[in-house]
Every structure is written in structure tokens, then in C-alpha cells.
Amino acid sequence: MSKWLSLSSEEQLEDIDQQSREGPGIAIYKHSTRCFVSSMARRRLEQHWDELPAGMPVYFVDILSHRAVSRAIAQHYQVRHESPQLLLIRHGQCIRHVSHEEVDPAALVEES
Q1: Which among 34, 72, 84, 93 is least buried, having the fewest CB atoms inside 10 angstroms?
Q2: Can you list the pairs that 94-99 forms with residues at least 24 positions away whose Cβ atoms lie under 8 Å?
Q3: Where are the domains of the chain?
Q4: C-alpha angle 71/74/75, rounded to 5°?
Q5: For residues 31 and 103, is the Cβ–Cβ distance under 8 A?
Q6: Rg (CA), the chain
Q7: Each residue of 74-112: pLDDT tens digit?
Q8: Which residues pair with 88 in a beta bridge?
Q9: Best CA proximity match to 14, nearest among 73, 95, 57, 84
Q10: Using an 8 Å Cβ cutoff, are 29 and 59 in contact?
């Protein structure tokens, strides 16, 4: 069972940066409800939720409902916007990001 945290405002990015200074880091998943590849990536994450590093919060942003937040993530963490996209945040920086078919819990485990 997944435990998504909603990411729906740009102000949350500062909180995420603060939280990322402790523990295994923070994951942000950017999802498009109109994209088949996004649906597959989300399903893969949910099916393998138990493979995520213990205690890692995972934020979910619907890029269609929250376009400004999606743009802010790309700018704030200096990554090119893609969807689906999974970012690993540590010490306030994106240390890894993957997209499309590469979205998998293993992308977070390798760096943790």
C-alpha cells in the first residue's frame, strides 16, 4: 500500500529541503494523469513500495493540476521537466532523477 504525500504548493519545496537533511532523503514523483507511461510508472512504484528505503517520504505531484508546482520543482532543483519523473532530494539538492521507464524504487535504493 502506498503512502503518497501530496505536493501541491511551491512553498512545500522549502520544507522538503529541510526534511531532506535527515534520514534517507526525500522522493518526489511527478505524474501526468493523461499519460499511459505515467500510469505504468505509478503502478510500478506502488507495487514495489516496500523496496523503498525505510522512512523515505514520497511526495506526489499531479503535473496537470499543479503546473506551477511542476515548473517550480524543475527550476528549484535545476532539472529538466519530464513526466513521469522521480527525483531523489538530499541536503536540499536533487542528487538523482529518472524519468519514463526508468522510474523504479531501485533508482532511490542505489543512492541511499
Answers
A1: 34
A2: 95/25
A3: 5-109
A4: 85
A5: no
A6: 12
A7: 999 999 999 999 999 999 999 999 999 999 888 887 554
A8: 27, 96
A9: 73
A10: yes
Domain covering 5-109 assigned CATH 3.40.50.300 in the classification: no
Which residue shows C-alpha cell 511526495?
59
pLDDT in tens, 50-73: 988 888 999 999 999 999 999 999
CA 31/CA 20 separation, integer angstroms: 21
* Beta strands 5-6; 93-99: pairing state: unpaired
* Burial bucket for residue 88 (CB in 10 Å: 0-12, 13-18, 19+): buried
Instruction: Kindly report the length of the chain.
Output: 112
CA angle 30, 67, 58 (to 5 degrees): 25
Q: Read off the pLDDT of each residue in 34-51 and give the average, rounded to a whole number.
A: 93
Cα gap 64→33, rounded to integer Å = 7
pLDDT of residue 1: 47
H or E segment and range at residue 83: none
